[in-house]
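Usage

Read records sequentially. Each one opens with the input sequence:
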Amino acid sequence: MAPANNHRESNIRSHAYNKTQSPIRYMQINLQHSRTATDYIMNLSEKDKTDIICIQESYLYNRRIAGISTKNRINASHENKSRAAIVINNRYIDSVLITQLSNSDCVILELEYNGSRFHTASMYFDITEEIERGLEKIDKMLEFTKGNGLIIAADSNARSAAWHDTKNNKSGKTMEELK
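and closes with the structure output:
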């Protein structure tokens, strides 16, 4: 009987090790405040074992982010009017909200996973505002995270044929010129 238990325990340890050592799986989506899109992305993320979802324009109910499973951690700065959020669906990822850089259109987290620290941000650039405002926010994030990794997922509302859009706009031209 003892050998069978040892084998089972070995498989359990191996499974846990593989889960914590696997690469992080990201998704990014603008939900356009849609409940249907929220349901779809949550089902897809469950199926694909997505660890982090960067969301812009979340579905809101009573001015709060809704439709996200309670087993996930939702990170948003101002949930009652938030247009940016980060959902974490991996209990091995520790996160801290960087409040001095987060607002209703930008959420930035410091993450720790497998002994590595890095940052991730979800951003929404308001189409009625100059894109430079969002780019200044990115500059501040780069300064803050200097020396550490930073992953940014954003809906910049920038349109350009450079990324196969059928239209161009001023914001798209500005984004094309970034170095």
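Summary fields computed downstream for this record:
- The mean pLDDT is 87.
- The chain is about 30% helix and 30% strand.
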